[in-house]
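Let's practice the habit of predicting before peeking. Look at the sequence and jot down your guess about where helices and strands might fall. Then scroll down.
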Amino acid sequence: MQYKTQGIIIKRKKFGEAGRLLTIYTEKKGKIIAIAKGVRRIKSKLAGHLELFYLTDFVIAEGKNLDIITGAQVINNHQYLRDNLQLSNQAYYISEIVDKLVGENESNKKLFDLLKKCLTQIENNNQLLLSYFSMQILGLLGHQPELDICAHCHQKLSELGKHYFSHQFGGIICQNCQQYDNQVQTIDINDIKLLRLLSNSDIKIIDRVKLDSTINNLISQFLEYILEAEIKSKKFL
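Done guessing? Here is the structure:
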């Protein structure tokens, strides 16, 4: 049986003599792994449609173990990613997060739309985009950090006093509770407000607030805590 779906290629590697094994985040089925047979041959009709980060219309045949790509037509090749190393590194970062955080065949239309939107926005080279994407995907997958009440005692956070971010408790904790986690990071109220904006606002918010490298680092560290793994592409940013 065949099915059609839009998808974005987030990872690929060689398969056999002339094929490729592609990890694709699709609109209909979420993350899938599929084979593109013979695509590394010069005369392959699929070759020009199956590059990293391409938004593509796919025709895919269901297989016993792995699905097989039988047709593909590029919708958006995001050419600017191939022309700028810094921008392509941001795309690698986003793709790695999706690949590591999402299981196979878990459909999530909102996540597909987020991925598509953020890959398009990379062209604007706004460094806050990566933090926006990270906070949004954490929310969509049920990992959003607690930002409104203390993640330990569950009391409403005050704008006064010291606040801390705890990976262990999954969010902000108050001054009274910081004793329960000896690896907390201090965070001021303005950074907490920025995290709330990144979690709850449309993507346009990144053009209206200033970049904070502290927030970028905090979010990427929290992601690695959730993943229990290093985000390898982070070192190229």
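How did you do? The radius of gyration is 20 Å.
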